[in-house]
Design a protein that fits this description.
single chain; alpha+beta; 8 strands; 33% helix
């Protein structure tokens, strides 16, 4: 089901049919480098992740991640709002399949999500990015985010940059 539409993209809810492509996405080198290893190694793991991190999140919070597709239906990545216990505000997050990078899809999808955040009950929003993830930092700055500080939110004690919108 399409939730948001842009000139080139649809943002839709995830379903179990997305497991294979999600498995590919979360096991890309850059996903693991900048976002982390989600311990999703099988189709079964991916289906569980979709149920817990996509479907249940929307049901319980009223927002969460969406699948980004081209109008043709081809999946290009994910974008969404996340509520992390270590952050005061929901944060916008995104990931793209490597062969779809540098086409402006993340900017387009995240911009639409930010413009429609009030319909999801979200007023203020933040974002996070690894200190060395220049591509994500560039997208966040282009969207109008400003770097406001640093935090450690993972077990590996790596500092990340925090952005306000």
């Amino acid at each position: 089901m399409t939730v948001f539409k842009t000139k080139r993209l649809f943002l839709r809810y995830a379903n179990q049919h997305d497991a294979a492509i999600l498995l590919t996405l979360v096991n890309q080198v850059n996903f693991k480098k900048y976002i982390g290893d989600k311990a999703i190694y099988t189709l079964s793991d991916a289906k569980n992740y979709i149920e817990q991190s996509f479907i249940a999140t929307h049901k319980h919070q009223g927002f969460g991640p969406y699948i980004i597709t081209l109008h043709s239906g081809e999946v290009v990545g994910i974008v969404g709002f996340y509520k992390r216990t270590v952050l005061q505000l929901p944060d916008v997050g995104f990931a793209l399949l490597a062969h779809h990078e540098k086409n402006g899809y993340i900017f387009e999808a995240a911009k639409t999500l930010l413009q429609n955040r009030h319909t999801l009950g979200i007023d203020r929003v933040s974002a996070i990015a690894s200190e060395n993830n220049k591509a994500s930092q560039s997208v966040l700055l282009k969207l109008g985010f400003k770097k406001v500080g640093k935090a450690v939110i993972s077990d590996d004690k790596t500092a990340i940059d925090i952005y306000g919108y």
